[in-house]
Amino acid sequence: MHFQLDPDAEAYRAQVRAHLRAVLSPEFEERVYRSGVAHDDEFAKGLVAKGYFAPDWPAEFGGQDRGAWDAQVVKEELMRFDAPMYLSETTRMVASIIRAVGSPTMKDRILKGAMKGDITIALGFTEPECGSDVAAATTKAVRDGDDWVINGSKMFTTNGHIADYVFLLARTNPHRPKHQGLTMFLVPLNTKGFEAQAVWTLSGERTNVTFYTDVRISDEWRIGEVDEGWRVIALSLQDEHASGWGPHLGRLLHHAEHWADSPAADGSRPIDTADVRRRLARIAMEYEVSMLLQRRCVWMVEQGQMPVAEGPMSKVFSTESLERASQDIVELVGPDGLRSYLEPSAPERGRFEHMLRFALGTTIYAGTSEVQRTIIAQRGLGLPR
Known about the structure:
The chain is α+β, with helices and mostly antiparallel strands. The protein has helices spanning 7-23, 26-35, 41-50, 68-80, 86-101, 104-115, 229-241, 246-260, 274-302, 310-333, 351-362, 369-380, and strands at 121-124, 140-144, 147-154, 165-171, 182-188, 194-200, 206-218, 222-223.
């Protein structure tokens, strides 16, 4: 495995970084935060125009036929800049699944529009009573001729109030075991019977609880075989579990170092204190490990291997490191570190306070740390259930 990017990938990173610096102004950052929505159509289509939306996709779908490392560079920089990408990421994830197992009609209907930023797709997995146990879904889809009638609710359908579709997991056979009898659908959200209600998170993000009341869709919107939805959703969970949050840690470290190197009125700097240097060094080490774990997953995919346990290793280490580091930095900065995000007079415009709130949720996204450790134990170490 190579631990450093080659010169071409580094040059590509510089291009991506220059574009993000040009478009992600402080005013844009504040507008997105105040809205609570991690998506902006103009920004997403700007990425499409530059070829940064899905660089490793084939050119026929709007990609650039680039390799996995260029795609990784784009992901790292978008995360490092905290770009409003969540809806774009879920859209791209579902598009990848449709490309792999969708019907020809579904591919023609969705893929090109998704890659142009004209179609957006939210995720409908979690339910109010199920938590991280996605397979315990009780939302029902009942066959009625050539249609399906869906009833139930989903929790944490982030961007479900603005997306065009939701990638929905529904139970189609209640008599089969929990992980069986499930089917995946792509539900148009302009269908009668759909409703989204806002739920605000600790980090200031809007997510939704969504309701499906006699939602009727054609069988054309089914993805994969009937009662084989767990195999389909496994493709998306594999992608989510291999996520790494190291770039967020890098952003926190950048602001912490800038704060530590800024002189006080008497000319002293926090970084001149041994305890400050020690804490920053620990964050820097965990940032380096987080990036290496994530890049190992990319390398494995490039080699034709599936990072079954390595993906969860990357996710659990980087998110727990981010949580530790955000708490450590706020403790280090003191009461000023809790001054509000985007307040001009707060240290680093309040980014320490915001990261403290944001980091707490990252250990839950895409499966809790407990879920990740179970996967590592069972599928990585071969331990019994």
